[in-house]
Amino acid sequence: VSDQKPLGCWSVKHGQIITCPVVCNFETHEYIAVHDDKVLRIWKNKDINLDKVFKATLSADVYRIHSLPNGGPVVLFKGGGVRTLDVLLEAPQQEIENIISDEVIKWSEAFMEGQQPVLIFATEKDGDFFVYVQKLKMNSLHKYKLEQQELSKPLSFTAYIKNQIITLLCLCSNDSVYKVLIPLQQNSEEEEQTLSKSLLLKLSVSGSVLKGTSFVVLDRDHIAVLGSLAAPGEDSKECLTIWNTKFQTLQTSKELPLGTSGQLWCYEEKFFFTHGKVLTVIMYKCETSSLAAAVGKLKDSQTPDVSSFVNWNTLGDEELVVSFQSQQSVALKSESKMTLRSKRNTVAKVQPDTLSVGQLLLNLKDASTTVFEDELRQLISKAQMPDFQATIGCVITALINRCKTNPKYYPRNFLLHIVQTRDLSYSLCPDLMAVALEKKDVHLLQICLQRFPDIPEEITYACLKVFLSISESYLQRIDVNLESVICYIDIEFNNKEVKTEIVENGFNAELEQDIWDTKITKETHVTADGEFCPVGPQKAALLNAVLHSAYSETFLLPHLKNLPAQQAVLFLRYLYYLYVKCSEKINTTLPGIRSPTISQIMDWMCLLLDAHFTVMVMLPEAKELLSNLHKFVRAQVRFYSELNKIEGSLRELQRLNHQKDSQTYSIEVLELI
């Protein structure tokens, strides 16, 4: 998610339906899915086609698979039966008991209590709700009935285990959250018990009521609720809210104008939810709550709270600040909030080590350019501070945000220095390359392509298009790193390439083509045989950076098809030139630093031909190029085919030489048949 790159995609056949969420087996690093309720599929990352992976048809319908980090996958069937995956795979058609009769499962969750896997699930029948707790190793099952309340029914559940007690939280239709305590240690002979609910939180504040759809527990004092907040006389608005259950206060809320699916997930101190058509991720950090912090939040509603130390750039600039105001994880060390407010207009006087990074960047928002950059340089110089990489990402984001608000501002040298001296990634500063593309800062784009390991294919394509479209005369005035081309493109002072004849081990590309096709004229060699580079050294260096960038063919190909035909031909000419240059070397390796490898050149040639083959066949200027490329490849295939024919004879000769007395002088004639 942080790299914004799809890593894999699998699909079932037409007509088949995946009927429960796919999970990962942490022990075997395999994915587990169920389609059409009963068909189990298990596969690994390297598998491509689901039809060819492991398949098992079960005897009963599956409700959900839960994967525990140290306990393995646990399968819950719609009839209430539970099996570990290992036991189930021993006999997939084993009979599964029906425990819950006419009840319907509404929710389930699995935990590890010590070394013991524990499964809890809630069911409904005729308006009554029941809770089942199963300890797998002990094979014990307990059934409870939830206490009913008039005009209220549970909408969503969540739970956690602590000190042998399950705390079950219920989000109910009366806009309240209730708590239910279930002890794990129970007498197995006891009959069905009724669980009483206690009110934990009323989801209303200042006359506004939250109609929650899903919620998660953050810690013992805080929960997050996703839903619609409705004020009297106003339209309801979807929002994410954070509540302090200890002091019954709304800590913060964030409006989500694009709408959500109503689902909220929480994993490793990050919120996951859909906002419009995108998956939004917001980081948070909880510390022990206090009454002063809870009341302080109510008094200071202007301070943004929901935040991301790494700016995900999804819900606005205010997400750049710290965590919830009541849990200031990197908050003020000595100054009170009132003191801080009084100093907001004197940014230069505030010492950076007394503020959180997010607060410092907010304070610098309206500072002058000189003060702004000086403060950021001081912040970067503190290499010993925690979360340093995230801090650099926030600094770049602050610079980019200022570029967006002030089109005349562009700190090219500052950005270039940061990228060259720090180990960054695209996900830490996703807007950096977008702004560089807008400014046509090809040098910064070149460095990003060389250093960022996680650039999306769309951005890689955009860089390629910009590099191919910029004129050679413009590039000659630009500072570009030529390390990757200087060793195999010789340039005179008048910028004309000097032909360098390279013949190694008797192989010459021009000579080989003459052997197999005597109709190629000398003029063809000069113009299209790869002797002369079709682009200047600056453009060649930029294109080499693209060739080095990691990509997935599946996701790059659709973008590459949009490349204008003339640019595609030019790029293919350059790839052909590199291909010929590599073939001149016995080790097929170009000299220089970060020079393209033969594999990268071949992969991009194939990708470009796949994307534009029909167009290139129709273009007159491309026909000769394709023909020469075909002839060159054919000559190479024949050359290596001839080498393969004598491979056996050469090995036999080597064996005979080892058997002879090295001190005996002789001359022998061996006939290779």
From TrEMBL:
Localization: Nucleus, Nucleolus
InterPro entries reported in the protein's UniProt record: NOL11, Nol11_C, NOL11_N
Entry's Gene Ontology molecular function annotations: RNA binding
Species for this entry: Ibidorhyncha struthersii
Ranges where the Nucleolar protein 11 C-terminal domain occurs: 359-672
Location of the Nucleolar protein 11 N-terminal domain: 1-285
Superkingdom of the source species: Eukaryota
GO biological process: maturation of SSU-rRNA
Keywords: Activator, Nucleus, rRNA processing, Transcription, Transcription regulation
Protein name, per record: NOL11 protein
GO cellular component, one term: nucleolus
Main localization (coarse): nucleus
